[in-house]
Amino acid sequence: MLVSQYGVRSYQEAYEMYELTEPGTNSRVLVCPERGGIVTSCRLRGIELFYLDQATFEHPAANIRGGNPILFPICGQLDGQSYEWNGRSYKMANHGVARTSAWEVVGTSADGEASVTIRLTSDERTLESFPFAFELLFTYALKDGELHTRQTYRNLSESGAMPFYAGFHPYFAIDGDKKIAYESDATKYLDYNDNVVKPFEGSVDLEELVESVCLLDPKKAEISFPGAAGARVRMTYDGIFKYVVLWSVKDRPFVCVEPWMAMTGELNRQEELVMLEAGGELRANLTIGCDK
């Protein structure tokens, strides 16, 4: 009997889950639309790449520690969790509104890939902290042992450009030492622990650092590093993701390697915001793969 090349199914646990499978590469991806549209598991070529703290995932009010949270309309933090726009002050939680919102599923496919497309639109809650009408469409697609995250950002406003800087916060499982080598052409990084710019020589020991560090000047939109079980993780992404943030927590077996469109606090500085014109859309992609 022939085994289907791709599979998509939904099932109910603590939340409704969507499972994408590719038996030929022993790959599986789990998506939870209700919990911020997050990918909670990314098993590629038989190796689970993501770390997940299950308790934070199952607690509906907790920030999920693990998987790949979606960051929109900001990455990182704002001073006092607030910003001003057009003379008015707004409150914005860390990493924005997308990761704490329920997304809806608008389509699935097992034709040529295993995929699920989810959508988030602005509502009364998001407008309180981000006064712009928007629509996000993300397609998670599993194909050839890689996870593609195809993103569409839309400004539904009839007038006025929408400021934002999106990103991702993937938690990658690792074995042992957090002083790992990252293959990147970045030459310097900002250490948020002392706010000093330092030369990047290929590795940063995250184990004793409380705050993150940010690779400042990569020219190539790609990075790779050793993950769990001997895998080498590869990430490629569109050039609009200009920065890569590295972060971890002491004694936890993960490193976060996070592509961001701008640095933390940008909605306060307003120097390199993405400004999406009224009625406009921006498309981007993030691909995660691995080599054994």
Structural overview:
With 292 residues, the protein is mainly β. It has a single domain (7-291), classed as Beta-galactosidase, Chain A, domain 5, CATH 2.70.98. Helix content is 5%, strand content 46%. It has helices at 54-58, 124-129, 266-269; strands spanning 7-12, 16-22, 27-32, 38-44, 47-48, 70-71, 82-85, 88-91, 104-109, 114-121, 134-143, 146-155, 162-164, 167-168, 171-173, 179-181, 188-191, 196-199, 203-205, 213-215, 222-226, 232-237, 243-247, 254-260, 274-276, 281-291. The strands form 7 sheets. A 7-stranded antiparallel beta sheet has the order 9-10-11-12-26-22-21, with no helix packed on it. It has a 6-stranded antiparallel beta sheet with strand order 15-24-23-20-17-18, with no helix packed on it. The chain has a 5-stranded antiparallel beta sheet with strand order 1-2-3-4-5, with no helix packed on it.
SSE arrangement:
Blueprint: E1 7-12, E2 16-22, E3 27-32, E4 38-44, E5 47-48, H1 54-58, E6 70-71, E7 82-85, E8 88-91, E9 104-109, E10 114-121, H2 124-129, E11 134-143, E12 146-155, E13 162-164, E14 167-168, E15 171-173, E16 179-181, E17 188-191, E18 196-199, E19 203-205, E20 213-215, E21 222-226, E22 232-237, E23 243-247, E24 254-260, H3 266-269, E25 274-276, E26 281-291
Antiparallel strand pairs: 1-2, 2-3, 3-4, 4-5, 6-14, 7-8, 9-10, 10-11, 11-12, 12-26, 13-25, 15-24, 16-19, 17-18, 17-20, 20-23, 21-22, 22-26, 23-24
